[in-house]
Amino acid sequence: MSKTFHVTTFGCQMNEHDSERMKGMLESLGYTETAEQQDAGLILFNTCSIREKADSRFISYLQLAASYKRRDPEIVIGVGGCWAQSVKEDVFRRFPFVDVAFGPGQVHKLAEFLTSESLTAQGFFEFEGFTGHLPEKRARSFQSWVQISVGCNMKCSYCIVPSTRGRQVDRPLDELVAEVRAQVAEGVREVTLLGQNVNAYGREMRAGAGRGSFAQLLHELDAIDGLDRIRYTSPHPQDMKEDVVLAHAELDSVCPHMHLPLQSGSSRILKAMRRTYNRERFLDRVALIREHNPDIALTTDVIVGFPGETEEDFAETLEVCEAVGFDGAFTFIYSPRRETEAAELVADFVGHEVSVERMDRLVEVIQRRAGEQARRFVGRTLDVLVEGSSRTDAARLRGRIGHGKVVNFSGLAEPGEIVPVAITSATSQTLAGEMSLLARALT
Ligand code: 5AD
Ligand code: SF4
After folding, report:
1. What residue spans of 206-278 are helical by DSSP H?
2. Does any ligand 1 atom lie closer than 6 A to the CB of residue 158?
């Protein structure tokens, strides 16, 4: 087998992060990355099972990899991540051409497999283990993702995560601080902390040196010289307490952006989802967050067509989205996932056409409100972390303001620089602007 690899990543940022670890580990084993899947000796997939659509897209990619392997039987095919975890050994029965499969956080097992004598089918599906200590390859040298926990102790009735990623296990606080400090020494300016329920961090840890709350973690990271931006995803509204809200107001490097998943605006549906908060409590959290951080950007996740969702329930979701005025949202049509409580409610499933029609109405409200919110940035000069050239016009640059919004702008700067940009226009999705040379000269 040639020592080259290609990784295709599906799903969430956690998977993106695991894939970076995977690449770093493979490079430390002497493998090199290829641009095209068909040129690689080791074809890997890091899979997701959040939505049905991700499954089917992944399976068509997998079939393509199988066709390469028919041409060259030396090729090794590996499948990792949540989907692999959810089907376990079954993967080898359904796709006999797969050589190795492993669950999320089991990237080190891939190393074990590759360095073992026999390359016959092996599966690794344990919940233990972090990818944290493996070398990682960063897509951009100035941005990093740090996984602070794996798993989730909530029991949201639609969600497959508790069964694929197990109970929440947190990494010690001192270890996280040391890791970020080392990254900053290598040039990282922005870190995104990852976990399924980040603000439950520290709650179930045993007393000792590494113990601390999520707010404490934010404080300790903020104290690191040279770290300009701290982001995190996702918190749970139930656990959004004043200490974290205040951290946004008090700590310079904690970005003025919070992704706070609503899921539904109907208290009845929230209860069926086992979200542990109701509509009033969510609105109350939003009020508290804005009381301390009037300019903060709020984004969210919403599911439409949860089993039993009536027109009245959906109208309440629209009302909450209208009232809050999110800066953006990820919207999902409910899709039943195996081994979840909601998937049993077959009799209450909302038809596809009804869900699609509700989705259209939801997206209209979300985009209109996001567009209105984005106008508050026009006329202001904001710091932008440059990420590269604009995707639509290579002569312009692209970056993000602290609020998380993408800005396309004219100017001269290198990726990784933070530059002042005068915002000239806004849509619901992106901002446009010009680099402010005067402001730059003064900084
Ligand atoms: N169907 C639709 N959306 C889902 N999500 C999670 N599980 C499902 C499901 N079964 C959405 C939630 C979550 C986001 C990451 O994915 O909104 O916050
Ligand atoms: Fe899933 Fe709920 Fe945990 Fe998020 S909080 S990972 S939606 S169970």
Report:
1. 214-222, 242-250, 267-272
2. yes
User: What domains lie within the chain, and their CATH numbers?
Assistant: 4-124 (3.40.50.12160), 138-255 (3.30.750.210), 283-374 (3.30.750.200), 378-442 (2.40.50.140)
Query: Counting atoms of ligand 2 from 1, which one is nearest the CA of 263?
Result: 7
Beta bridge partners of 122: 100
179-235: per-residue pLDDT in tens? 999 999 999 999 999 888 999 999 877 767 678 999 999 999 999 999 999 999 889
> What global pTM score does this model have?
0.80
Asked whether the beta carbons of 113 and 31 are under 8 A apart, the reply is no
Question: Token pair 């492993």 is at which residue?
Answer: 102
Name every residue whose Cβ is closer than 8 Å to that of residue 318 and which is 6 or more positions away in sequence.
265, 361, 362, 365
Tell me if residue 408 falls in helix, strand or coil: strand
Residue type for position 36: E
Nearest residue (by CA) to ligand 2, atom 5, is 154
> Residue 237 Cα, ligand 2 centroid: separation in angstroms?
11
Is the separation of the CB atoms in 233 and 263 below 8 Å? no
**380-399 pLDDT, tens digit each:** 999 999 999 887 888 999 99
